[in-house]
Specification:
By secondary structure, the chain is of the alpha/beta class. The protein has 11 helices and 17 strands. It has helices at about 45-55, 140-145, 160-185, 185-190, 200-215, 235-240, 250-255, 275-285, 335-345, 345-365, 375-390, and strands spanning about 1-10, 20-25, 35-45, 80, 85-95, 105-110, 115-120, 125-130, 145, 190-195, 225-230, 245, 260-270, 290-295, 330, 370-375, 395-400.
Length: about 425
């Protein structure tokens, strides 16, 4: 059988990282012990994947080390990377005694038709894990392959599967960030939260969760203000998830009349140092309003052609603030989740997530995000090239498949 894999040149190779290629290679007919061969039906593609690609070689993130590029003419793991994607697939062959052919699974896959994965010994009825000893232990959530039959959040309908691929990874980043904020009473009682890149799913899911926390706690007066580009401002306002929203160009003046007294938290989802400096400057001259925390939650304003791994500084803030300005704290979901797993039982975490996810699935249909399904290798490559040329509109959500349009989701191939 022929496999197809979407790859990108590494920045370190000197090639244009935005020149995606579809690599053809053979699927192994025999597989080693304790491995599974997946047939990847489809996968989501969003601004998060653009970030994964941009940080593929960054020393802290190392996204290109989750899946190796195939060895083919002009392509190798030294010259090309595979950007991870969240997808659904079916196991078509297994050499692990506790994992079986025919199982529906969801995980952090390669954008491919087929994917061969090793299976670590710690298999349970909910999931199995891909051993990646070369990566830090806190990457374990990315190594988890969820077994859909026992997943309390799984719904087999194609539409919900699509929404799962698009929202689930981003939503859990936002969910655990809000949980982290709430664990400190929003850093000492802050009641105003300013979020950049407000039209991105990570940002507006965080706004949604803060509003949900307000409702659950009753009487909370936390306000959420979004910052976004001028072209994305109408969409951001239509979401109705922010108490107010302003564009980057004029927020300095727009925010003046809306600047509530007290403590503010700034959540940087854009990853833009110049914007962060402007935000700090703005609060520095506002005597009754204090910026107490700056938190980095994402890098939506980067691309593989505009960032080098050496430019990413992790944990100490990407720029030096003046005077008493707060440094930029980086929130990384796997690290906080590791802490919470020491504090809470698995059943409590599962129930927390189930309640939040069920509510999201009932609410997200009103947000105006449209699913754009793209099938076939040529079509997927063209869709990626369109994103490079035009960017990603906030209301667009992509679901891609390297199979043709006529193929049924979840069908099994025969070896």
């Amino acid at each position: 059988m022929e496999n197809l894999i979407l790859c990108h040149p590494r920045v370190s190779s000197g090639q244009d990282p935005n020149q995606a290629i579809i690599v053809k290679c053979e699927v192994p007919q025999t597989i080693p012990n304790d491995h599974v061969l997946l047939e990847v039906d489809r996968f989501g593609f969003s601004a998060n994947n653009v970030t994964y690609q941009a940080l593929g070689e960054a020393s802290h993130f190392r996204y290109f080390e989750f899946h190796s590029a195939p060895e083919a003419e002009g392509v190798s793991s030294n010259t090309h990377g595979v950007t991870p994607v969240w997808g659904f697939g079916t196991i078509i062959k297994s050499t692990h005694p506790k994992v079986h052919s025919g199982e529906r699974v969801h995980g952090y896959f390669a954008p491919a038709r087929y994917l061969l994965l090793p299976v670590s010994p710690d298999v349970n009825k909910y999931a199995f894990f891909v051993p990646r000893p070369h990566l830090p232990p806190d990457r374990r959530p990315y190594n988890q392959i969820t077994r859909c039959a026992e997943d309390p959040l799984y719904d087999p309908s194609p539409t919900v599967e699509d929404l799962t691929m698009l929202y689930r990874p981003l939503f859990w980043t936002s969910f655990w960030c809000e949980d982290w904020l709430n664990s400190s009473d929003y850093k000492g009682g802050s009641t105003q939260i300013l979020i950049s890149s407000a039209s991105s799913k990570t940002a507006f899911c965080l706004a949604y969760l803060i509003r949900r926390r307000n409702s659950l706690q009753g009487g909370s007066t936390r306000r959420v203000i979004g910052l976004t580009s001028t072209k994305n401002l109408p969409f951001t306002k239509r979401l109705a998830l922010y108490d107010d929203a302003f564009d980057y160009e004029s927020f300095d003046t727009s925010l003046v009349g809306n600047l509530a007294r007290g403590q503010w938290i700034y959540v940087d989802v854009a990853g833009n140092d110049a914007l962060n400096a402007r935000v700090r400057d703005h609060f520095r001259v506002c005597g009754d309003s204090k910026l107490v925390r700056c938190i980095a939650l994402g890098l939506t304003n980067v691309s593989a052609s505009t960032i080098k791994s050496s430019t990413i500084s992790w944990g100490s803030g990407s720029e030096a603030p003046q005077g008493g300005d707060p440094k930029l704290e980086h929130f990384f979901m796997p690290e906080w989740l590791s802490v919470r797993k020491q504090q809470l039982s698995v059943s409590v975490i599962t129930q927390m997530q189930k309640e939040a996810w069920t509510k999201l699935m009932s609410d997200c249909g009103t947000w105006g995000v449209s699913l754009r399904r793209v099938c076939g290798p040529d079509q997927v490559k063209a869709a990626y090239e369109e994103i490079v040329r035009r960017g990603l509109a906030p209301e667009d959500a992509f679901v891609w498949s390297l199979w043709g349009e006529t193929r049924e989701y979840g069908s099994r191939a025969k070896l």
